[in-house]
What we know:
The protein is about 40% helix and about 15% strand. It has helices at about 20-35, 70-90, 105-120, 130-145, 160-170, 185-190, 195-210, 220-230, 275-285, 310-315, 330-340, 355-360, 375-380, 395-415, 420-425, 430-445, and strands spanning about 5-10, 35-40, 55, 60-65, 150-155, 175-180, 215, 235-240, 260-265, 295-300, 305, 305-310, 320-325, 340-345, 365-370, 390. α13 (about 375-380) links the parallel β15 and β16.
Amino acid sequence: xxxxxxxxxxxxxxxxxxxxxxxxxxxxxxxxxxxxxxxxxxxxxxxxxxxxxxxxxxxxxxxxxxxxxxxxxxxxxxxxxxxxxxxxxxxxxxxxxxxxxxxxxxxxxxxxxxxxxxxxxxxxxxxxxxxxxxxxxxxxxxxxxxxxxxxxxxxxxxxxxxxxxxxxxxxxxxxxxxxxxxxxxxxxxxxxxxxxxxxxxxxxxxxxxxxxxxxxxxxxxxxxxxxxxxxxxxxxxxxxxxxxxxxxxxxxxxxxxxxxxxxxxxxxxxxxxxxxxxxxxxxxxxxxxxxxxxxxxxxxxxxxxxxxxxxxxxxxxxxxxxxxxxxxxxxxxxxxxxxxxxxxxxxxxxxxxxxxxxxxxxxxxxxxxxxxxxxxxxxxxxxxxxxxxxxxxxxxxxxxxxxxxxxxxxxxxxxxxxxxxxxxxxxxxxxxxxxxxxxxxxxxxxxxxxxxxxxx
Length: 456
């Protein structure tokens, strides 16, 4: 059975430059090549896209803008004001606690109201208003051009809820695609929010039960879903993210230097300080020539967890070899990657998710240094891939050994190890799309060997 029309719902999609847009965008292109009519409901990165136009050849766009959040923005400003007030009103050491009638108590009460508002408004996520509009647009489009199936890709989680509701209204199969876990992510980040978690798990459970198929970039996410709902077992599939370009073949000559590049955002738990501390320890060794070492962080952040990089570097040996540069155009990032000898991937405290950057690094032609816990999904993915050094950042000795090894090979021996094509071919975007196609063909309700595309 072959699907002749697919309705994709994804908040992120080309021309958005978000890395989460790449997976659904690549799938849409692949489906068009297969002769499938593809329609996409998305925010398209906030770009001015005309509804019904082709955002890519053969891909019809149904743009849905995220509505303004005037009240929420007001509450955010109010939150910042309260935070400053709380700091100014903090009792001095030895003073008595505030009574309910004091300004400090009033500020604390207002802070609780503020926090309660955000917990309610962010239930599931803060894209629900976009989701309501997307649902209306998707159903309208589905009635005008009936799809064979609906494919929704999250995050945000609201997207797969929209996909489930749309598929139920149109009476077609629904594929849930989880680029990140849903409630398991919430359980990890907010373990004390038991009531919200219980409600979200009920919603998640319904979405998963109603789906014809569930795909996930991570195996552990699938296993957690099955543990809660064993009946999901036959319709769950692991479809990894992937690299889009061909594996680069670059000479292994390092030029007698160790040049480490991190290009990306330092958010969530992507903590650069374990790496900076390890570099500082490396440079303290008398046999290390610091003139042959370079570490570059390319992104928006100038601090992490309130700690300024500029202030931290003062007086450090590594200050002379570390540079922080602002975000660059994609072609500049490519050039910087080719100039580096090691690409750095920070994936700490993400036991269930694999950063999409991981797959790009595998195809980069450069040696990979991955910082993540030994029992994480990322560590399991790269295990036994030559050219990838995976280190638990809490293991200081292992991290020091990894940098010493890199210095010895790249600077002294002049050679680097890049992942070989035969070791990473299974992580290409083409391999992922082939798996998606297999899943789609298994659930499509029509059998059309000759597919005719409707005029657009």
